[in-house]
Amino acid sequence: MSSNRVAADRVDSVTTGPIQGSVKHYREIEADGTALRIPVRRIGLSTGDHFDVYDTSGPYTDHTAVIDVEAGLPKLRDSWAKPDVPGPRTQLAWARAGIVTTEMRYIAEREGVSPELVRAEVAAGRAVVPANHRHPESEPMIIGKKFAVKINANIGNSAVTSSIGEEVEKMVWATRWGADTIMDLSTGRNIHETREWILRNSPVPVGTVPIYQALEKVGGDPTKLSWESYRDTVIEQCEQGVDYMTVHAGVLLRYVPLTAKRVTGIVSRGGSIMAAWCLAHHTESFLYTNFDELCEILARYDVTFSLGDGLRPGSIADANDEAQFAELRTLGELTGIAKSHGVQVMIEGPGHVPMHKIVENVRLEEEWCEEAPFYTLGPLATDIAPGYDHITSAIGASIIAQAGTAMLCYVTPKEHLGLPDRDDVKTGVITYKIAAHAADLAKGHPLAQDRDDALSKARFEFRWRDQFALSLDPDTARDFHDETLPAEPAKTAHFCSMCGPKFCSMRISADVREYAEKHGLTGEQALDAGMSEKSAEFAEAGGKVYLPVVS
Amino acid sequence: MSSNRVAADRVDSVTTGPIQGSVKHYREIEADGTALRIPVRRIGLSTGDHFDVYDTSGPYTDHTAVIDVEAGLPKLRDSWAKPDVPGPRTQLAWARAGIVTTEMRYIAEREGVSPELVRAEVAAGRAVVPANHRHPESEPMIIGKKFAVKINANIGNSAVTSSIGEEVEKMVWATRWGADTIMDLSTGRNIHETREWILRNSPVPVGTVPIYQALEKVGGDPTKLSWESYRDTVIEQCEQGVDYMTVHAGVLLRYVPLTAKRVTGIVSRGGSIMAAWCLAHHTESFLYTNFDELCEILARYDVTFSLGDGLRPGSIADANDEAQFAELRTLGELTGIAKSHGVQVMIEGPGHVPMHKIVENVRLEEEWCEEAPFYTLGPLATDIAPGYDHITSAIGASIIAQAGTAMLCYVTPKEHLGLPDRDDVKTGVITYKIAAHAADLAKGHPLAQDRDDALSKARFEFRWRDQFALSLDPDTARDFHDETLPAEPAKTAHFCSMCGPKFCSMRISADVREYAEKHGLTGEQALDAGMSEKSAEFAEAGGKVYLPVVS
């Protein structure tokens, strides 16, 4: 823990214990002599079976784990091999050298794919494994379009509100519900200390936007920024263990005037800071002119670039415009440079885009940026619903993920209006798990539909507790059910409150199925052949189809 | 009001008064000697301008209106012309005869299109105007893919819970927030009386599923249903003023066994009731065999068919299967029959469908059902998020509407779990307004983007109150803003709580724009030519870009 750390009493207690209806389980495998324990959330079913789901929550949901926020999480990856290869020691360099790292084996088991697929995708630059050597607490994960779509949750204090304790709890809370990475976007006081507490306790990769802290260091005046102060900030954050960094190096001086006629100008904070700097100095962005040196720094730690879209559209009117795509072309150029230094790269994307303009974003990103993983904020499919932008953006996020986006940055209901609280963070995460899963289904991810099928089967068989446990948010599902039918017998009732016992279509169709199976009737021909003489028999049995099982 | 009506004290008071930041306004036009007042919601802006939006809320949001729930709404359409033509007096027959009805003129003004477009689309069967002669209180509206995408809200009591007063208020509440039609799906006691109160007070078309009431009349046993009792129920509802009716006439005997191997069988209540009847009697559905007579009844009142998808998939696993598409083909056959009787038709659609299988539903519906308006329930893009199915389904709804679906049936957060309360109804309506609007944008509806642009402009210019007023839900937008920055000066602050005054990208880009405009810099060449010498000047001005306007 950093010597700058704040007093422990400023970190409130964090949420621990398993999610309702499940337990933490570890699959044990061996990789190059190292015993690996791959975490899964194991959902117990009333049938005696279980269903395992991908688990991002770290030790916090393990009821046997001892959580000590002051000590931080165990340094899981410190003992893992870091093979010697010529050049940088990054997952990209190892993958290119044909080496399957321990991280890659861990990821393959998590994703249900072969270690070779992981290596090949990383080597091609189509996937990244954000894993700073100095953040050994993190459980390896991968971002790439051949794998499950990932989601990021933003946390971080601002000048206006929030404490360190709240931010650490937000990280634990967000990963509990499924955040694959978190970004610490703090801009207020104690940026270094907040980040230290988050990193030492985070089981997922942590991203930052170093320009925010660099700006704090120069008193908030962007014209006073310099490459030197920025570089020092990046090194400080690399040393701490930040896994990926947003760098707005594509905001070039000549692109700035392209935003002048926009409805909403520049809406990216990093983008606007760099635009102001470029205009004030009438000089090309120091992030662009010093990009090679920046690559050398990130390569030493295996920090991944997240090349920021500083000129992303902030409204439907500005989507897919000249400013946005000019920057994207430059991000493509920078992608090639970063990879030549052995540095992993992903590309950030919009923003606000109407549905019919979404797919073009993915197509151009892939074409211009060597298929580097795309990491988008939404996009929001309309501007007219502040207060519901988790939904407006989930629509865009699902579509852009189906088209190939590898990670989705969540948007909470407070977007455009205020800072998300604990409930907003959960709502944002669950909403984005929906978008990511919908895309996994549409892309045919091998493990995706199993969960839908398991839940729907439980629903059809009136296994209410299993339905809750298999859902993304068992607590809410159960609470909603209990609002109308709170009694315990209702958990096993063969009907629900929507239709009541007499109108239950599920019950009727269970009867239909039972009847059809009994008589081998599963197709038109079978029906024609065998059904005529059975109808009286069914009518007799059918007289009972509405018998309520709970009075 | 029906003589069966329940005591007035059972109807609680309903919500009245304008939505925050707007007033009811009427555009006055003349049509064939009739003075028409077309309602709009007029949003007042702090710039002195106003912005009008489509308004479904009826007189309840008119602060000058006297609302008397016992008397019902004024019978707006009773005095309108009902031209004599050979055959039925339906909007379809009139449109085919080349007549632009008063309803069509009213709709054209509402939609911002020509009356002739309305007539032509109705004549072609690509749009419907659900307007029972016996529901003169309703304000005409149109459902068709060339017009704004519409949404429906389901209300209605069940055997388990809810009162008449609650249902009337749900209708008022749902239309307040934008429901274009409502369906009364009551299955419990007082079905007739509940419907009467809703119809006499509803400014929007009301739909029902007559089989629910027919089933109540035979004590809940589907095997006891008969054509005669069903027909009587339909006539009763036509007489009351129901505008459109869901009829599951496509559930044929030979399709029932196709559902036996499904993960979730038959999930439509109407579908399962008819399946049970067909199996019990081993006879073709009485809805199918008596469809001509049914058409004759509906034609007399100009009640619109909503041909129900009784075999719609209830899970991702069952999407686009043989049972679903077999029924859809039959709905196409019935569409032709209905139209030959002069009856308007729309077609109901799924359900649960993964994103990559959604567009095929629209394609086949259009091909097989003569492009009759498609009216879909969601579809839910995944099964795994009970408690959030307004969101899972908004994803599917946006995509299916972009592909050509004309009306979306809302889904609330309580779907699969319980009965929606007042908050759930609002959440469902707003969520579906988002889906519908996102599709309007993607389809290039002429009026759609104006609202996004107006809101984004207000956002960029820090006109907070205008941003709230232009949003789909001004109350929530304002509440969320006030949670972090409640003070009144913050409503005019040139920053918000997310970034605080020092980090505001909107402010920086306003400065960039001001600078660029001052120097005529709006393109790369302009920049190259004129910018070099101006940079010192900007640096001087730029030193002030972060001055907070509120301390």
Distance between the termini of chain A: 60 Å
CATH class of the largest domain in chain A: Alpha Beta
* Strand tally of chain A: 13
| Apparent shape of chain A | globular
Mean pLDDT of chain A: 89
Low-confidence stretches of chain A: 1-10, 523-551
From the 3D structure, determine the CATH topology of the largest domain in chain A.
TIM Barrel
Multimeric organization = homodimer
> By helix and strand content of chain A, what is the structural category?
alpha/beta
User: Which chain pair has the greatest contact?
Assistant: A-B, 139 and 139 residues
Largest sheet of chain A: 8 strands, parallel, barrel
CATH superfamily of the largest domain in chain A: Radical SAM ThiC family, central domain
Rg over CA atoms of chain A: 26 Å
Number of domains of chain A: 3
The strands making up the biggest β-sheet of chain A line up spatially as 6-7-8-9-10-11-12-13
CATH architecture of the largest domain in chain A: Alpha-Beta Barrel
Number of contiguous helices of chain A: 20
Organism (chains A, B): Nocardia aurantia
Domain ThiC-associated (chains A, B): 20-81
GO cellular component, one term (chains A, B): cytosol
Binding site for Zn(2+) (chains A, B): 352, 416
Commentary on this structure:
Two copies of one chain form a homodimer. Chain A is α/β, with parallel strands linked by helices and 551 residues long. Chain A folds into three domains: 25-124, no CATH class; 134-443, TIM Barrel (Alpha-Beta Barrel); 499-550, no CATH class. In chain A, 41% of the residues lie in helices and 11% in strands. The first copy, chain A, contains 20 helices and 13 strands. Chain A has helices spanning 91-96, 102-111, 115-124, 164-177, 191-201, 210-217, 227-240, 269-281, 286-289, 291-301, 322-340, 358-368, 389-402, 422-443, 448-460, 464-470, 474-484, 505-518, 524-530, 535-542, and strands at 22-31, 34-44, 50-54, 127-128, 143-144, 150-155, 181-184, 206-208, 244-247, 304-307, 345-349, 374-377, 407-409. In chain A, strands 6-7-8-9-10-11-12-13 form an eight-stranded parallel β-barrel, surrounded by six helices. The longest helix of chain A is centred in the C-terminal third of the chain and has 22 residues, at 422-443. Chain A is globular and about 80 Å long. Chain A starts with 21 loop residues before the first strand and ends in a 9-residue tail after the last helix. The model of chain A is unreliable at 1-10 and 523-551 (pLDDT under 50). At the A-B interface, α8, α13, α14, α15 and α16 of A face α8, α13, α14, α15 and α16 of B.
